[in-house]
């Protein structure tokens, strides 16, 4: 099994408010505000979401997020270069990070497997 296409984009910024205002001016609506410099924005016309994250510690990145129906059966035609294997996250998915041939990151996200994944996240054993 491969991916189900682009689900969203992660966009890091130095100024969450300014970046959120930019995406709002393009028609996106805030559907989840985290309260700590990040939020999920969707367009009412459909298409991929934009997840904005304020970042001050390193160089900013923007990368696509592809949907994977099942992390356990994910089997692309070419073995990916994993920067991070599928790991449960605090935002309710299993996420892997793979590198394209030029070293750019692409995120893969699938549903959490079971209650063990959820418990691991709750106990702080995994961080996305």
Automatic annotation (TrEMBL):
Upper classification of the organism: Bacteria, Bacillati, Actinomycetota, Actinomycetes, Kitasatosporales
InterPro entries: Glyas_Bleomycin-R_OHBP_Dase
This protein's name: VOC family protein
Source organism: Streptomyces klenkii
């Amino acid at each position: 099994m491969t991916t189900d296409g682009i689900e969203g984009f992660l966009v890091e910024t130095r100024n969450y408010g300014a970046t959120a205002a930019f995406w709002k001016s393009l028609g996106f609506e805030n559907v989840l505000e985290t309260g700590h410099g990040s939020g999920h924005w969707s367009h009412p016309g459909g298409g991929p979401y934009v997840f904005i994250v304020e970042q001050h510690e390193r160089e900013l990145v923007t990368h696509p997020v592809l949907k994977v129906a099942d992390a356990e059966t994910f089997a692309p035609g070419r073995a990916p270069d994993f920067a991070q294997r599928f790991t449960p996250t605090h935002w309710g998915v299993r996420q892997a990070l793979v590198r394209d041939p030029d070293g750019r990151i692409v995120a893969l996200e699938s549903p959490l497997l079971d209650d063990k994944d959820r418990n691991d996240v709750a106990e702080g054993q995994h961080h996305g």
